[in-house]
Amino acid sequence: AQTVTQSQPEMSVQEAETVTLSCTYDTSESDYYLFWYKQPPSRQMILVIRQEAYKQQNATENRFSVNFQKAAKSFSLKISDSQLGDAAMYFCAYRNAGGTSYGKLTFGQGTILTVHP
Amino acid sequence: GAVVSQHPSRVICKSGTSVKIECRSLDFQATTMFWYRQFPKQSLMLMATSNEGSKATYEQGVEKDKFLINHASLTLSTLTVTSAHPEDSSFYICSASPQRGSKTQYFGPGTRLLVL
């Protein structure tokens, strides 16, 4: 079974600064997807960024980028120019690309991000 | 973008009653929907995979008779918590994918259940 580990229960950052959230995972599969989701106080899950395992290039979405290290099974999220609206709980998630567990997401424990003005 | 709704957003019920939660994909068809449970400040735990026209697949440790799932159409899945007890109080979230080949799931806004 796949596992996802987020070792930082809480992180904080000053507005306009950069912060990196860590995530490691364990799988025996070669084809899979990795995600970062944001859950603000409203509790609505919002997709931040997605990475396909077969792609060597790190995904980027505006101020959000990832450092995907497949061999190390590491998938960190970097938030640049942090904004107050970035404050939320962030979840790293894994999904097989196929197989019997197709579509099922496995989530990490989450990291609460606080942004200080 | 793809939109998933849930109803109700919040429900309070007495112990021993049953509660039904609906999950709808508003602008796409979803052959598969997923139901998660989340306790405060904790992660999402997958409860079951809801398949249109067939039986749901439950995760280990989830009681099938307790959490009844019905996926009667390509846009609607329901989760019924039967004979609810206070320990069933939680936040329930559904998600859906537009098609089997879709890489991304879209989440509903969640339902907060409080059993008194």
Could you give the topology of this structure?
The complex is a heterodimer of chains A (117) and B (116).
Chain A lengths: L2 E3 L4 E5 L4 E3 L2 E3 L5 E8 L6 E7 L7 E2 L2 E6 L4 E6 L8 E9 L8 E3 L3 E6 L1
Parallel strand pairs in A: 2-12
Antiparallel strand pairs in A: 1-4, 3-9, 5-6, 5-10, 7-8, 8-9, 10-11, 10-12
Chain B lengths: L3 E4 L2 E4 L5 E7 L6 E7 L5 E8 L5 E2 L8 E7 L2 E6 L8 E7 L9 E2 L3 E5 L1
Parallel strand pairs in B: 2-11
Antiparallel strand pairs in B: 1-3, 3-8, 4-5, 4-9, 5-6, 7-8, 9-10, 9-11
3D architecture notes:
The complex is a heterodimer of chains A (117) and B (116). In chain A, 0% of the residues lie in helices and 52% in strands. By secondary structure, chain A is mainly β. In chain A, strands 2, 5, 6, 10, 11 and 12 form a 6-stranded mixed β-sheet that branches. The mean pLDDT of chain A is 94. In chain B, a hairpin with a 2-residue loop joins strand 7 (67-73) and strand 8. Classes of the chains: A mainly beta (117), B mainly beta (116). At the A-B interface, strand 5, strand 6 and strand 11 of A face strand 4, strand 5, strand 9 and strand 10 of B.
* Mean pLDDT metric of chain A: 94
Radius of gyration of chain A: 14 Å
The major beta sheet of chain A can be summarized as:
6 strands, mixed
Largest sheet of chain B: 7 strands, mixed
Proportion of residues in helical segments of chain A: under 10%
Uncertain spans of chain A, ≥5 residues at pLDDT below 50? none
Mean pLDDT of chain B: 92
Q: What oligomeric state do these chains adopt?
A: heterodimer
* Proportion in β-strands of chain A: over 45%
Count of alpha/pi helices of chain B: 0
Helix content of chain B: under 10%
